[in-house]
Amino acid sequence: MTRKKNREERPFLFANYPSRKVAIRLAYHGHLYDGLAKQEETSNTVEAYVVAALKHVRLIPQDGPIDLARCGRTDKGVSALGNVFSLTVRASSWPTDSPQKPPLDYCAMLNSALPVTIRIVGWAYVDDTFDARFSCVGRTYRYYFCHRGLNVEAMGNAAARLKGVHNFRNFCKTDVVNVSNYERDVRSVGIFASEAFPELVSYLEIHANSFLYHQIRCTMEVLFLVGRGLEDPEVVTQLLERGDRKPVYPLADGTPLLLWDCHFKNLQWNISKRAFMVVEHELQDIATALFLRASLANSMRSQLLTWYNGHTDAEGKTIVAQLPEVQAADRWSVTGCDWTDKRTHANMRVRRYDLFALSRQREHGASGPLSSRPYTKLLERETERTFEEEVEALSQKKRARFEGKMEKK
């Protein structure tokens, strides 16, 4: 017992083992986490769990990772299939060793120590100069949505106008401290029917050299307005050519957003058969369970309508059964909301207000009032502060950071 206890307590000395720089490919279900990157105010981030797993299986020093870099810094709620970290880890052999020992099974090792909603789905040896962020030559995102009631053809027309090199200042959230160049190259963009439910679900797929803060969520909000018939596809071109005059509009929900892939030159991804089978079947199990839950919830809704269609309530109002539809006051039919998840309950009051607005619309007909104010076209709305106005509004601490970065350019 004493010998075993001493062996378990023996400290791990990273320097005593071979090490190499690797890229690891991450997949995660973002709705359960408060973003990718570590934060001082919470430990519920993807990076925090990955670093803890790296320490647990003794792939990095106990005092933290070496040369850690992240490719796509996804926000709270956003998921990923192909995000990438780069860092130095324990290896089976040094690069110069001959012969080389079989590599460690990084995917299986880390996945054994990670929550099932975070998985390592590939790894690759890289040069010491490799950086997951700066070595990336492009990123691809997908945004999934229910297209019932939406004019998908008009949305596709609008989305196509994003292709090419443009100033996307009016399609992002301003971050003047870190970003001064709002020009990006969108290499491909389109709207496609989903593989699982083509009759109900579509997705935007967009590939660019890089993206601005909240660029895709801003883009989707504009495309949804086009899909509802509230804006013409031409509004995308007008916003791209408008300059630094972004109209005030909300962000689309982040939960349906997926970082699909990060692209690099000459990178050969590896995964063991064992690790692949485990992850592939886990995703199959999750998808099957969610398909069944979706069917269950839809059947419950249908039966509720069957029970009460034509029923008159105590106020003399008649309940009329109708298919789900997207109207100006009901954005929820596009992205939905999993009310069975306690993290969504903060949105309940907003949902009830929107239901009241939708009820007013249905009672008054298509020409009736949707809310206390009629819809205002994007180009007629108040605008956010310009880049110069944002700089003037910076706090003293942020202004010092801004000026320091400007001096380096």
Catalogue the unreliable spans: 366-372
User: What is the terminal-to-terminal distance?
Assistant: 62 Å
Under CATH at level 1, the class of the largest domain stands as Alpha Beta
Mean pLDDT, all residues:
89
How many β strands by DSSP?
9
* Shape descriptor: globular
Task: Report the helical percentage.
Answer: 25-40%
Q: Can you summarize the main beta sheet?
A: 9 strands, mixed
Beta content comes to 15-25%
CATH architecture of the largest domain: 2-Layer Sandwich
> Count of helices?
11
CATH topology of the largest domain: Alpha-Beta Plaits
Which structural class should the secondary elements be placed in? alpha+beta
Radius of gyration over all CA atoms, rounded:
25 Å
The total tally of domains equals 3
What is the N-to-C order of secondary-structure elements (H for helix, E for strand)?
A: HEHEEHEEHEEEHHEHHHHH
Superfamily at the CATH H level of the largest domain?
Pseudouridine synthase I, catalytic domain, N-terminal subdomain
Keywords: Isomerase, tRNA processing
Domain Pseudouridine synthase I TruA alpha/beta: 158-264
EC number: 5.4.99.12
Organism: Trypanosoma cruzi (strain CL Brener)
Walkthrough of the structure:
It is a single chain. The protein has 409 residues and is α+β, with helices and mostly antiparallel strands. The protein has three domains: 2-135, Alpha-Beta Plaits; 138-263, Pseudouridine synthase I, catalytic domain, C-terminal subdomain (Alpha-Beta Plaits), CATH 3.30.70; 283-364, no CATH class. It has eleven helices and nine strands. Strands 1, 2, 3, 4, 5, 6, 7, 8 and 9 form a nine-stranded mixed β-sheet that branches. Helix 4 crosses helix 5 (215-227). Residues 366-372 have low confidence and may be disordered. Its EC number is 5.4.99.12. InterPro entries: PsdUridine_synth_cat_dom_sf, PsdUridine_synth_TruA, PsdUridine_synth_TruA_a/b_dom, PsdUridine_synth_TruA_C, TruA/RsuA/RluB/E/F_N.
